[in-house]
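Working notes for the structural subgroup meeting. M.R. asked for a predicted model of this chain before we commit to crystallization trials. I am recording the input and output together here so anyone reviewing the notebook later can reproduce the run.

Input as submitted:
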Amino acid sequence: SLFTVIRPAIYLDKEEEVRLSELHLFTGPRYTLALVRDEQRSNQRINDQFNLLYATPDASPARLLHRILDSTVDGYAPVLDGLENDSDEIEDILFSHSERRDANSLAQRIYELLNQVIDFQRACRPLESMIGRIIEGMRTGALDPSPYPGVSDEEKNEEAVELARQFRNVLDHVTQTKERLEDLRSSLENALRVHDTLLGQQQNDDTKKISAYAALLMVPTIVGSVYGMNFEVMPELKWEFGYPAALLLMVGSCLLLYWFFKKNKWL
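Returned structure, recorded in token form:
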């Protein structure tokens, strides 16, 4: 018998989450045994695959295996659409100052979405080699396409060629899915790096602002501390306009520093 493990997937819009199930198939000359592992009980596609089994009792196990694989891989398309839509939303938020949320929550969302993509990749990765081995089994006769009596060798060969073609079509869809997942993973990894860069830039701008305001407060502090030293002999100590001049010096120095920092975009 041929044992295959298939990972059906669905995308939940409300939770913005990918749910993966497991379908274990034992395919023999005249039987197909399916074991379903779906803890969430949320994958309607699993039930559809069982309906495929019961709706076509005269089909060969090999053709049923193809239908289940084809149905599973076709179900990956809406999941990819949902993930790509989430990725586009993240990029929009990332480069939009008006919509940008808390930095920690945005990074968490990117990281969670990236983990979902990686899990999805792990579910899809074995399909390519698995379908290749099935096609090879069809070619060598290890997997009989028509095991029922009364089928000539010529009809079996024609059925094997047709099934191999259909399995290759599924294989093409798997390849496209893997390429889209790889592009999506690269996009999310770039988004995470851009987020870190923007966060570092924002922190650098905040540091500049804090340093600029500290410098603005330092000038009047220095002038005030000099005139508060209480020495007997100090310049302009007994001058009538000494106090206003000191205040004017503080204000003028602060305005000059403010203009300098503003010009260099520190404020």
